[in-house]
Specification:
Pfam families: DoxX (PF07681). The protein has six helices and no strands. By secondary structure, the protein is mainly alpha-helical.
Length: 135
């Protein structure tokens, strides 16, 4: 299984699925729930500067997810999204238990670990980063 083609295919699949998850969450904040409702939710959770935080989170998730899908600036974006998720853990998920059904730590921890895998292993050759760094 330690063949470059298999590794690159696995990284591509991993990156695309993770990116789609982030795009969906950013899209939901901006266009489905809307920024007003999401701001109220952030405010109830005690997130500082809830309006600004909603915009930062939504745009970071939407654009960061898209960058993960295509593999552009991948390690930087994955690191930034991991920091965003750590903030989400602190403000939203820390006191909610473990399981995702109670808005607990389960999902954000999985996302953070997944993002760290991308930071460590990179985007693979099947990415814009991979194309730009071939020499």
């Amino acid at each position: 299984m330690d063949k470059p083609v298999v590794r690159d295919a696995a990284l591509l699949l991993f990156r695309v699925v993770l990116g789609i998850i982030f795009v969906a969450h950013g899209w939901e904040k901006l266009f489905i729930s809307g920024t007003t409702a999401t701001t109220g939710q952030f405010s109830a959770w005690g997130v500082p500067q809830p309006t600004l935080s909603v915009w930062i989170a939504a745009v970071a998730e939407l654009l960061g997810g898209a960058f993960l899908v295509v593999g552009l600036l991948t390690t930087f974006v994955a690191g930034a999204l991991a920091l965003l998720m750590l903030a989400a853990v602190y403000f939203v998920h820390l006191d909610a238990g473990f399981f995702v059904s109670t808005n607990g730590l389960e999902f954000p921890l999985l996302i953070i670990v997944s993002l760290m895998m991308i930071v460590v292993f990179g985007s693979g050759r099947a990415s814009i980063d991979g194309v730009l760094t071939r020499g």
